[in-house]
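FAQ

Q: What does a record look like?
A: Structure on top, sequence underneath. For example:
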């Protein structure tokens, strides 16, 4: 319901209630006034009749008339009856009547009516009451009857010498009947006129109220609605000039001030948003904000979009793990997600993750920090990811350089010692055995001098590949420097097996090698010892194998020697 109806309906209801109450009060006042008028008329007529009767009676007695057939017609009782009949005849519509009723009427035809009998009984029981006035309905017309008591006096004995009524006792009543119909019609006419005037006044008041409402309230409410709509639609100039100083004008002024303040605040927020967006998009790390309840991305910078090769619409509103496709380096459980951990623990979390795209594996350093609300409950998580693939590759390269030979890619001395230590621990734990072989190329210095260092390096690479091809994957071939190689041969248990393997190694090294259209031939001297037969310490085993290798060289090269 509109405010206009909410305002006008109660107003009209108040007017209606006032009109009904006024009409009821006026109706009651009119009835009371009509009764008072008729009562006043009845009293006047009563006094006139009584005065006439007393004067008439006094004159009758003063002239010393005797009561007989000729003179009784002049008695007040006879005369007043004729006056009553003549008054009724002369009054309009027989509106006035009066009768004098006695308790013991001489004229049997002048019997008291039922109301007159009730009046006689009433005055009998209420001797102090001087009058009785009551309405009656006769032939659908309203009348009022006025009764006043008449009492027997001493002078009444002149005309009624034989009566049994004593002086001062009730002798009868004087009944006056007045028609109220003409007064009732006048009252109804006046009521109708008043009703028309009230209705006209109510209509004028209604239209006046509506006009004032539209003039003073509705127009200003339209202004307020226009300001609110303009403000809601982003119109920063949504202000209206105010000329009045009432409450609505003050409200319009406040709305103008609020609209101006909102415009200023929106400008500040827009600048702050642009500033933060500029900073965020210029950060090289991939930054995203994730809603804790839905696990969906609510904000992301350009670096994040570029990192995962998605558009803004493909990222915002989508689940984080669906966009990033990242996996844990430790396990594949959801609990390893940094965002989930940060949301659950309310503490920052940092983990390394990887993502596979085709044949390419990218590594990321991901850190997540929770954003808590006023109740210290995490509502969002800020996720910062940095691509560390290049760092990982460099670390792998450094590790490889630290434990592998740069030329051949074989394990170097440090990795050889580590693997030999593991083999010895396994031997002690599982009561197994193995062998260590020390291989040295024959006349490698002469080849280097004759063909150059580049040819020598190529020769070493070829030999490294050939040696690796002769052993199992569980075995180790290491280059410890120059033209020297060390081999760890796991589970080599007896001399016969060792001889077969050593002959294969010498045969593979002796195969000709073509370098720069030149055919080069080389050979190797190999020394071999067993563990734990020849020792359980690394230095002892290396010393034993080295000695056996030199024994092979002294035997003419291109051969092998096994420690006794």
């Amino acid at each position: 319901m509109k405010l206009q109806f909410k305002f006008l309906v109660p107003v009209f209801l108040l007017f209606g209630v006032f009109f009904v109450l006024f009409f009821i009060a006026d109706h009651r006042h009119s009835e009371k006034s009509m009764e008072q008028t008729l009562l006043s008329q009845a009293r006047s007529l009563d006094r006139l009749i009584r005065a006439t009767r007393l004067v008439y009676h006094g004159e009758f007695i003063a002239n010393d008339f005797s009561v007989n057939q000729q003179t009784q017609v002049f008695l007040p009782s006879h005369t007043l009856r004729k006056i009553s009949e003549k008054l009724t005849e002369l009054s309009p519509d027989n509106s006035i009547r009066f009768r004098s009723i006695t308790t013991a009427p001489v004229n049997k035809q002048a019997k008291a009516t039922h109301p007159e009998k009730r009046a006689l009984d009433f005055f009998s029981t209420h001797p102090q009451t001087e009058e009785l006035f009551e309405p009656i309905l006769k032939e659908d017309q309203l009348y009022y009857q006025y009764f006043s008591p008449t009492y027997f006096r001493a002078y009444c004995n002149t005309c009624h010498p034989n009566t049994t009524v004593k002086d001062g006792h009730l002798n009868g009543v004087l009944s006056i009947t007045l028609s109220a119909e003409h007064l009732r019609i006048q009252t109804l006419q006046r009521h109708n006129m008043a009703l028309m005037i009230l209705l006209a006044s109510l209509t004028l008041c209604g239209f006046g109220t509506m006009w004032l409402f539209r003039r003073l309230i509705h127009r200003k409410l339209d202004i307020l609605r226009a300001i609110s709509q303009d403000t809601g639609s982003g119109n920063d100039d949504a202000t209206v000039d105010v000329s009045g100083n009432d409450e609505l004008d003050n409200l319009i002024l406040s709305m103008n001030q609020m609209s101006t303040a909102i415009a200023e605040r929106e400008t500040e927020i827009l600048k702050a948003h642009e500033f933060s967006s500029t900073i965020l998009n210029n950060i090289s790390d991939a930054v995203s904000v994730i809603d804790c309840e839905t696990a969906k991305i609510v904000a992301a910078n350009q670096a994040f979009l570029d990192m995962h090769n998605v558009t803004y619409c493909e990222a915002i509103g989508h689940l984080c793990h669906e966009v990033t496709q990242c996996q844990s380096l430790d396990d594949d459980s959801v609990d390893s997600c940094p965002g989930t951990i940060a949301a659950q623990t309310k503490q920052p979390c940092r983990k390394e993750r990887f993502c596979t795209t085709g044949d390419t594996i990218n590594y990321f350093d991901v850190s997540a920090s929770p954003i808590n609300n006023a109740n210290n409950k995490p509502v969002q998580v800020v996720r910062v990811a940095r691509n560390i693939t290049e760092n990982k590759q460099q670390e792998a390269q450094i590790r490889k350089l630290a434990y592998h030979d740069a030329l051949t890619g074989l394990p170097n001395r440090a990795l050889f010692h580590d693997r030999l230590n593991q083999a010895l621990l396994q031997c002690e734990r599982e009561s197994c055995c193995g062998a260590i072989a020390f291989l040295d190329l024959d006349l490698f210095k002469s080849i280097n001098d004759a063909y150059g260092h580049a040819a020598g390096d190529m020769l070493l690479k070829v030999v490294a590949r050939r040696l690796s091809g002769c052993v199992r994957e569980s075995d180790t071939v290491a280059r410890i420097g120059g033209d020297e190689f060390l081999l760890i041969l796991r589970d080599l248990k007896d001399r016969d097996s060792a001889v077969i393997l050593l002959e294969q190694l010498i045969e593979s090294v002796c195969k000709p090698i073509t370098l720069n259209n030149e055919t080069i031939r080389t050979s190797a001297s190999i020394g071999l010892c067993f563990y734990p037969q020849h020792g359980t310490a690394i230095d002892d085993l290396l010393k034993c194998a080295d000695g056996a290798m030199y024994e092979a060289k002294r035997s003419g090269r291109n051969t092998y020697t096994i420690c006794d």
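Q: Is there anything notable about this one?
A: The mean pLDDT is 82.
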